[in-house]
Amino acid sequence: MNSLRLIRRHAAAFGRFAGLGSGLTLAASAALVLLAQWIPWIAANALTTLASTVIATEVHARVSFGHGRPGLAGHLKSAATIAAGWLVTSAAIGALAALRPGAGLALQQTVYLSATALVGTARYLVLRLAVFTESTPQRQTGGDIRLRATCEAAA
Length: 155
Prior knowledge:
The chain has helices at 3-35, 41-64, 71-99, 105-131, 148-154; strands at residues 137-139, 145-147. It is mainly alpha-helical.
């Protein structure tokens, strides 16, 4: 595959990842607001975070990466990337609070959104390269080249 086609394919996957992730985040935010009317906010936050993580993993595996159903290992790895992202964004806001205690809302949002963009890009790379990897050709005996997914499906 030529490099321009490869760049386009990954740019399209990243666009799907960013668009779907943003849409799912907005939907989770709306669900949180609604759910928090009936149960304590912290419980509503935990439930919407859990649900949106499971849904996002399914959607990203199937749509963003064309991987198919992720399974438990995919869900756990994806959840780990979300937990790591939460730590990074929390550390960024914590560092801002320590360095500039009187920082205004605009600076807080700039730091948070910048950290979130960095985390989202890193999360895409981890999911693409380590969790929902593409099938790569494998050389079989007799010189046949088959996709790993085809070999696994036949087994």
